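Review form for a predicted model. The reviewer records the input and the model, then writes brief findings.
Reviewer: anonymous (R2)
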Amino acid sequence: MTTFWPWLSLAGLGAFHGFNPAMGWLFAVALGLHRQSRRIVWLSLVPIAIGHAISIATVLAVVVAFGAAMDLHSFRLAAALLLLGLAAYGALYGHSHRVRVGMRTGMAGLTLWSFLMATSHGAGLMLVPAVLSLCLADHSGDLAIASSLPVSLAAVAVHSGAMLAVTAAVALAVFEWLGLAALRSAWINFDRLWTLALGATGIVLLVQ
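Model under review:
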């Protein structure tokens, strides 16, 4: 039962990331409306999900490598301080430094955009507490690279699957029924929610 909650957290964070317009669904809808094609919306979701997954996988690979080389307590402290630092930066300055890609971008450009957006927003770092819990579950407090990498890849798959499902659902709803104009009266400030999530993840690492 104890290993169930980290997987649920990974899926929940995937849904949260997918619901965030900065992670891609808004861009997919804008591209679809710009080119007047539902097909473009669906096609855009693939590179968006791939870029996000590559970013998450890269961050987790670095986390596992450093976690195996460092004292676990020191590593958790360093990761927590990094997350809290990102949260503080977001609270002070917001996420105004957007990665800009034009409406004529191709699939490769969209993949790169998604990768950079997820990385710059610290998306992969949010998964660290859940992945650490899974990696340490059977190793008595030691983080081993050989056993942690398969777990991390599975975590990426679960997270990315949930992210893609929610991104697709929101993009379809906005493109088919709501339209971008309706979002003006129902907009959620995801910058604040994202900042709170980063801070909460840092606190979890401190007390974990």
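Findings: The two ends are 17 Å apart (CA to CA).
Further findings: The mean pLDDT is 82.
Recommendation: see findings above.
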